[in-house]
Amino acid sequence: MVRFVDFREREAEILGLIVDSYIKESKPISSAYLCQECHLSCSPATIRNVMVSLEKQGFLSHIYTSSGRVPTKKAFKRYVESFNPEDIIEDAAVELDFYSLPSTNIEGIINYTLDSLTKFSGYTSLIAVSGGSGGLFFKGMRCILNQPEFEDINRLKHIFYILEEKVDAMHNLLSDYLDENIKILIGDEIGLDEISDCSLVISGLKEEKINFALALLGPVRMNYIKAASCLHSVNRQLKEVVEELI
Q1: Cα–Cα distances in Å, from 73 out to 8, 145, 185, 231?
Q2: 136: number of CA atoms within 13 Å, CB side?
Q3: 25-42: string of b/e by CB count within 10 Å (b at 16+)?
Q4: Of 84, 125, 157, 179, which is the most buried if we count CB atoms within 10 A?
Q5: Cα–Cα distance between 120 and 181 in angstroms, integer?
Q6: Burial (0-12, 13-18, 19+ Cβ within 10 Å), 14
Q7: pTM
Q8: Fold topology of 85-245
Q9: DSSP string, 127-149
Q10: 151-161: string of b/e by CB count within 10 Å (b at 16+)?
Q11: Under 8 Å CB-to-CB from 126, ≥6 apart: which residues?
């Protein structure tokens, strides 16, 4: 019996595969690549037709004369909307040891948390603190330098400008997300023009005397499952140690 495949279902499947492949490869994805690497049952011609349709809808774009396509911000937003909470929780494999620190004061905990977020996620980490040792703290700018999107020096300047000159704006932005749910802001959703070609993955921690907003900053081509899973795991363990200290 031949199974009927709805065209919209096929579009969603292929768009998801293109986004996954682009995150991995950081280069335009062609129909030939999808056939070879993803072992799709449909023909290359069918895949090309689907890609044309997705491009017309604004989910894909061409880069130069390449035969491949690149997912747009609209595609990444659709991709993130399809996540299941279980995907994030199950992928988390971060084990921290706050009690090995020489001193478990707030400053030491913030530094260790930032180092751990950067180490396990591969992205620049930020923490906005309200109350106690309030302020905006960040580490891992080297991770930005490792992303091909930021080989353009002007893009780098914009990120440094935000973190050095618009500290209050970034602090206020992160502090709007103090619940423990994962929030993903892509491109213009961030609300800061200078980093509208970036994404933020955010999770918060609200205690009686102090609040933390943890975030990971990267290109729109982030590995969102990995970033969100890491943030979820670190935030959960941070909550445990903060509740003991305060």
Answers
A1: 19, 21, 11, 22
A2: 17
A3: eeebbbbebbbeeeebeb
A4: 125
A5: 19
A6: buried
A7: 0.90
A8: Beta-Lactamase (3.30.450)
A9: EEEESSS-EEEEE-HHHHHTSGG
A10: eeeebeebbee
A11: 114, 136, 137, 138, 170, 174, 214, 215, 216, 217
8 phi-psi bin (left φ>0, alpha ψ -120 to 50, beta other): alpha
User: CB neighbours (10 Å) of residue 206?
Assistant: 14
64-98 pLDDT, tens digit per residue, is: 656 789 999 999 999 998 887 666 665 556 788 88
| Ranges of CATH 1.10.10.10 domains, the chain | 7-81
Pull the structure tokens for residue 92. Answer: 């988390």
Q: How far apart are alpha carbons 117 and 138 in whole angstroms? A: 10
Which one is the CATH code of 7-81: 1.10.10.10, 3.40.50.300, 3.10.20.70, 1.10.530.10? Answer: 1.10.10.10
Residue 139 tokens read as 């580490």
Per-residue pLDDT reduced to its tens digit, 208-225: 888 999 999 999 999 999
Q: Which of 23-37, 52-66, 86-100 has the lowest mean pLDDT?
A: 86-100
Classified as helix, coil or strand, 164 is helix
Beta bridge partners of 218: 199
